[in-house]
Write a structure and sequence with these properties.
single chain; alpha+beta; Thrombin, subunit H; Pdz3 Domain; about 35% strand
Length: about 475
C-alpha cells in the first residue's frame, strides 16, 4: 500500500521531568493600564487590582523535588564488527585479512545509554515516566535526589499515550507527589517543572500554560499541554506542577529549534491508564472501527450538518463494530453514548475509554437526518489493519485524472481499480485549495461512485451548479473527504 508521509516532532527522548515549584503573590496593577479611548468603556479585568506572580520557588522545590527522580537506561545493541561488502564476480575481499588481523577483537555488541526523568506516585516505589524513556531498555536505573540508586522494573507501558509505569524496591517509605486535575488548568496559569536536562541532574524551570489540546502528530490521543517552561532533552517523563504542587502533566516532547515551546501529556490521561498498567502491564481500549477526519464548514454545509460539529466518517474497517452496526462513509458522528462529539479529536479518546463489549448508542447525521445507531464496542488490538480499498485538466477544477489500468494499479499499489487516479493538480486551483495531491484516488463525488474517467466527467457535470462538491479520496492507507468550492 502507499504510505503517507508524517511530520516528525523531536521527542525529548533523553527525558527528564521538570518539577517547578511556585507559590504566587498578589500584586496590584494600575487601572491606568486599562484606560480606554474617550467615550468608550475600557477593557477592565474582573479583578484589576490583583495579579498572580510566581514567588518562593525554592520552598516549592524543597517540597516536591524529593519525589522527582532521574532515570538512566542501558540497551545492549548487537551488530557485526564491520560492514560486510560483497566483492564483485565472486572475488575474495582484499581487506578480509586486514580486518581480521587489526580489528578482529572489536566487540560485536555495545551498550547504549540514555537519560530521562520520572516522579514517584506511591510510597512503595511506583514511578511514572514516558514510554520512550524506558522502551527497549535492558536495564533501568533510578537515582533519587539524595543520589541513592536503585534498579527498576518496568511494570507496564502504553506506547499510544507514551506513558510507562516502573517500580523500585527501596526498603523504605518514599516521598511521592499528588496527581492533580489537568482538565481544570487555565491558559496563562503558572506551572513549574523539575527534571534532568542533558543529564545535569535536578533542574527547576517555571513558566505558564501557553495552550491546551495541542495536536502534534505523535499518536491517536494527542491532547498536549503547551508550556514555555524550559523543556530540553533529558526532561522527558518528568512532572509539570501547578502552584499547589500537584502534577498536572508529564513533560514529553519538544520541537527541534523551537524556543519556549514544550509539550506535556495531561495527567488525566495517565490517571486513566495507571490502574491497568499496574494490574495488567498494558492498556485495553475500546475500538469502533472507523476512519475519521475533520468536518470543515464546507463539508458540514454540503452534508447538511446542524451546528457544524462532529466527526466525519471517511471510511469504516471491514467487519469492524461500526460496519456491523451499519455506520457508513459520509456519516457524521455528533454524539457517543450521550456525550457530545465536537470534533474528530474528541471521538478517539471517548471510544478508547469505553469498556470493550459495552453497547452504546451513536447519534449520527446521515444525509441531513439524525439517526440513533446501537454499536457494541470491541477491544482494540494494535493498529487498524486495513482500509474498508494523459488526460486534460478538468475545466475550472484544476485537476487531471486517468483511469486505473492494471499497469497503473501495480505501479501505485492500488488494490481496487474502480475510481480515477489524480495525475496533476494545478497550483492555486480549487482542487489545490481543497487539498488534492498527485496520486490520490477519487472514489466518489457527492456520495456517487466513480469507476472511470467517463463516469467522473458525467458525475462532475451533474453537480456543476453546486456551491460545494464533496469528493471521497483514497490516500495512502485511508480515505478522506475533500470539499471543493465552485468559483
Amino acid at each position: 500500500m502507499r504510505k503517507s508521509k508524517v511530520v516528525v516532532l523531536v521527542l525529548a527522548a533523553v527525558a527528564a521531568g521538570l518539577v517547578i515549584s511556585a507559590a504566587f503573590n498578589l500584586a496590584p496593577i494600575s487601572n491606568a493600564l486599562f484606560l480606554g479611548q474617550k467615550g468608550k468603556n475600557p477593557a477592565v479585568p474582573t479583578s484589576p487590582s490583583t495579579r498572580m506572580l510566581p514567588v518562593d520557588i525554592p520552598t516549592l522545590f524543597k517540597e516536591v523535588s524529593p519525589a522527582v527522580v532521574n532515570i538512566s537506561t542501558t540497551q545492549v545493541v548487537r551488530f557485526d564488527r564491520r560492514p560486510r561488502m560483497r566483492p564483485p564476480f565472486g572475488q575474495q575481499d582484499p581487506f578480509e585479512d586486514f580486518w581480521n588481523n587489526f580489528f578482529g577483537n572489536i566487540p560485536r555488541e555495545q551498550k547504549r545509554r540514555s537519560l530521562g526523568s520520572g516522579f514517584i506516585v506511591s510510597e512503595d516505589g511506583y514511578i511514572l515516566t514516558n514510554n520512550h524513556v524506558v522502551e527497549k531498555a535492558d536495564e533501568v536505573t533510578v537515582t533519587l535526589l539524595d543520589k541513592e540508586e536503585f534498579k527498576a522494573e518496568v511494570v507496564g507501558t502504553d506506547p499510544k499515550t507514551d506513558i510507562a509505569l516502573i517500580k523500585i524496591k527501596a526498603g523504605k517509605r518514599l516521598p511521592y507527589v499528588h496527581l492533580g486535575d489537568s482538565e481544570k488548568l487555565e491558559i496563562g496559569e503558572w506551572v513549574a517543572a523539575i527534571g534532568n536536562p542533558f543529564g545535569l541532574g535536578h533542574t527547576v524551570t517555571a513558566g505558564i500554560v501557553s495552550a491546551k489540546g495541542r495536536i502534534i502528530g505523535s499518536g491517536p490521543y494527542d491532547d498536549f499541554i503547551q508550556t514555555d517552561a524550559s523543556i530540553n532533552p533529558g526532561n522527558s517523563g518528568g512532572p509539570l506542577f501547578n502552584l499547589k504542587g500537584e502534577v498536572v502533566g508529564i513533560n514529553t516532547a519538544i520541537i527541534q529549534g523551537g524556543q519556549g515551546i514544550g509539550f506535556a501529556t495531561p495527567i488525566h490521561l495517565a490517571k486513566s491508564v495507571l490502574g491497568q498498567l499496574k494490574e495488567k502491564g498494558k492498556v485495553t481500549r475500546g475500538w469502533l472501527g472507523v476512519y475519521i477526519q475533520r468536518l470543515n464548514p464546507e463539508m458540514a454545509e454540503s452534508l447538511n450538518i446542524p451546528g457544524k460539529k462532529g466527526a466525519l466518517v471517511a471510511d469504516v474497517t471491514k467487519d469492524g463494530p461500526a460496519e456491523k452496526a451499519g455506520i457508513r462513509s459520509g456519516d457524521v458522528i455528533v454524539a457517543f453514548d450521550g456525550k457530545e462529539v465536537n470534533d474528530e479529536h474528541e471521538l478517539p479518546q471517548i471510544v478508547a475509554s469505553t469498556k470493550p463489549g459495552k453497547k452504546v448508542h451513536l447519534k449520527v447525521v446521515r444525509e441531513g437526518k439524525e439517526l440513533s445507531v446501537p454499536v457494541t464496542i470491541a477491544e482494540m488490538e494494535g493498529e487498524a489493519p486495513k482500509r474498508a480499498g494523459a488526460p486534460d485538466l478538468t475545466k475550472g477544477l484544476g485537476l487531471a485524472v486517468q483511469d486505473i489500468t492494471p499497469e497503473v494499479a501495480r505501479h501505485f499499489d492500488i488494490e481496487n481499480s474502480k475510481g480515477v487516479l489524480v495525475t496533476s493538480v494545478e497550483s492555486g486551483s480549487p482542487a489545490d485549495e481543497a487539498g488534492f495531491q498527485e496520486g490520490d484516488v477519487i472514489r466518489q463525488i457527492n456520495r456517487q461512485p466513480v469507476a472511470s474517467t467517463a463516469e467522473f466527467g458525467k458525475v462532475l457535470k451533474k453537480f456543476k451548479g453546486e456551491k460545494t462538491v464533496l469528493f471521497l479520496v483514497e490516500r495512502g492507507d485511508g480515505r478522506i473527504f475533500l470539499a471543493v468550492k465552485n468559483k
